[in-house]
Amino acid sequence: MKSPERKRHSPLRPLAVALITALLASAAVVGLFGTPNATAQPAPAGSAAPAPAPTATPPAGSGNAPATAQPATPGGPVAPATDATGSVSPGTGSAAAGSAEAGSAAPATGAATAPAAGATPAAGAPPAAAPAMPWYEQLANRPIDESGNFWFPKAVNTATDASDMMFIAVLGLSAFFFFGISAIVIYFVIKYRHRPGHKAQPSPAHSDVMEITWTVIPTIITVFLFYYGWRSYIHIVTPPQKAVEINVRAWQWSWAFTHSNGYSDSDLHVPVDTPVRLVMTSSDVLHSFYVPVLRTKQDIIPRRYTYVWFQATKPGTYSLHCAEYCGTDHSQMGRKYDDKTKSWGRRAVIVVHEKGGYERYLAETGSTNDPPEVLGRKVYEKKGCVSCHSIDGSVRVGPSFAKSFGKPVPLQSGGTVPMDENYIRESVMVPGAKARPGFSPGAMPSFQGQLKEKEVEGIIAFIKSLQ
Question: Do residues 334 and 350 lie in contact, with contact meaning Cβ atoms separated by under 8 Å?
Answer without folding.
Answer: no
